[in-house]
Amino acid sequence: MAKYHKDFHCSKLYEVLAKGGTLEGACPYLGTDITLTVAREWLTRYPSFKEAYDRGYARGSATFEEVGISQMMNPKPSFDANIYKALKSRFRADRHHVSLSDCSPTEKLDRLLTMLIDSSEVVTAQVAQSAAAICDRIHTHTEIKDLKDRIEQLEDSNK
Q: What is the pTM of this model?
C-alpha cells in the first residue's frame, strides 16, 4: 500500500474537495499509486485524513450551493441548471457511498432513498416506483420476521 504522509495528503485532499471535487477525483493528486480503494481505506485508518475529507466535503458542498444560489438569483443565468444538478447528484452519491459502511440500517436506507431521489431532476414515476418497491420489500421482510418470532414464542410456551 502507498505510504501516507499526513501533511501532504490531507492538504491535497482538502484542496480538491473544497473546489467541489470528489474522493475519486482527488486520487491522482494524492499520488500516482493512490487508488479509490486506498483512499477509502485511509478514511477509516487515519483520523486526520477523515477530518480533511469532512472539512473539504463541507467546503465543496458550500461551493456548489453558493454557485447554484447565485445563478438562481441571476435574472439571466449563465450556465445550464441541468449540469449543476448532475454535478450535485454525483457529489452527493460519492459522499453517501463512502459513509454507508459506518451507519445503521435505518440510516443506510435513508441515504439510499436520498440518492435515488437526488438522481432525478424531479421525482419521476420510475423513481417513486423503485422507492415504493424498496419499502414494500422491507415491510414484507418485517412481517415474516414478526411471524417467525411469534411462532417461536408459541413453540417455547408449549414446551
A: 0.52
